Amino acid sequence: MKVLRAGKPTYVVLALFTAGSLFPLVWTAIAASRTNTRLAQTPPPFWFGGNLGRNLSIAWTDAHMGTALLNTLVVAGTVAAGTVLLSTLAGFAFARLRFRGSKGLLALVVSTMLIPPQLSVVPLYMLIAELSWTDRLQAVVLPALVSAFGVFFMRQYLAQALPVELVEAARTDGASSLRIVWHVVFPAARPAMAVLGMLTFVMTWNDFFWPIIALTQNGSPTVQVALTGLGRGYIPDQSVIMAGALLGTLPLLLVFLVFGRQIVGGIMQGAVKG
Amino acid sequence: MSDETVLLSPASSPATGRDAGGRRQVWRSRRYRWDLRLSPYAFVAPFFLFFTAFGLFPLLYTGWAALHQVELTDPGAMTWVGLRNFTRLWDDAFFWNALRNTVTIGLLSTVPQLLIALCLAHLLNYRLRGSAFFRVAVLTPYATSVAAATLVFVLLFGRDYGMVNWALSTVGFGPVDWQNGTLASQVAVSTIVVWRWTGYNALIYLAAMQAVPGDLYESAALDGASRWQQFRHVTVPALRPTIFFTCVVSTIGATQLFGEPLLFNGGSGATGGSDHQFQTLGLYLYEQGWVNLHLGRASAIAWAMFLMLLLVAGAVRLVRGGPR
Prior knowledge:
A: mainly alpha, B: 14 helices
């Protein structure tokens, strides 16, 4: 590993990058604490005003951000848990069990990994319209459970973290496959399950294209649907729009504050293996 | 559940005990065989159930839907129209405009994003105090949704009261009309993409840099290579596969660009600006399907996007001389 020590210029440039990364977020909070009239003056505000509470409460009720936050929590939580479960089971089978067709099935899954969602959006819409799922949360939960990345990620992890001998030993002891999954695979997979869960939660929380199509502002919106409604003139007050953007982003920022290191680790891990 | 418990069971007489034990053993070994043979399928089945219904089926059915007239108002009714959706697209100026914009915005966002990410990763690879903080900090834009980010950038790029134009005016430039100018609006949309994804790509490069063996740098330093030369002649070549990987992922991301141009437009629909100046293919697909209600034509656009990706992939394969 390279151990060159950083000089002062490095810190200065990194500080600039940090400022650039954080500035739009900080300014969201500044704009959310002002009034609409103040935002239509020049120069723009650089410090907080006293209007944050009012704007947040308007965004919470009138712009459905309260409902939207709850819905998104349910959706992202369910999708994360479901994806981790499905991916771990399938990933274990692909990594450690021999069965006919396993190579072909895995190749099929991996080959769909990089296909844009636009390619399947029309039939998907026809499907949920047929099932009368439009504007219901299952319309965004169930399709999101299909994570080719998740299966691949768990397979790669288990292929190196779960020794074949351990599975064989459990079998010789007479453990059924289900017991092996519960007592051997899950404990071995736990770190990767946590990372996959967090990444899936973040991705689902921010999922945009499909929820915009499947859900509506006044029905059961996710945060992104409610924010889109705001952006398209649902409430024409810029400071309230910024309060909505703040509400929609804060939960994930909290997740980052607590699990930031793990998420960074997960992305870097996935990069090396992927 | 070992064999001794059966054999030593005091409740049964020796004869029947052996008999029952034998039967039990047969049954157990049969169950074991079935378990061994079938459990793999049981473990992949839940995933493939969803995969077939919500992944594979829609993907393939798009091609079929593209050959029909399907309206959003009644998605169940399909009328066969052959290739008409495609020939229409060929003569559609808005389609070609969207294709052009997708390519321009794709280049404007991908190239700077990856170059900056490479430099950023290089800096993060030094021994740093507070390195965990910097890594999380540059990743925070990734935690911000397309919608939230675009809403903020719409204000920052406002023509009359935006921060960007104010900053430009202090050095004597501007004001730039970031909404209505063709190139200006495309630069603004690209900026949002660059802001959200640079840190993420930097971390991917950083992971690859940490896998480069240190003695490569040591011998380069012994040969008198400066830090820049080390970066240029050791780091970049070692990262070539990773750079290729991020190029592929970013290109695919650029092809499907949708949320930024939709919301950068404010309230006026999915046109991508008053003059369609920043309408991308992804946005045009949405406009055809969910504003103009023509799902069949939207499917044709989806296939055109797929074709485009295949062409790019083919070109890359030609240039690189086969897959890695």
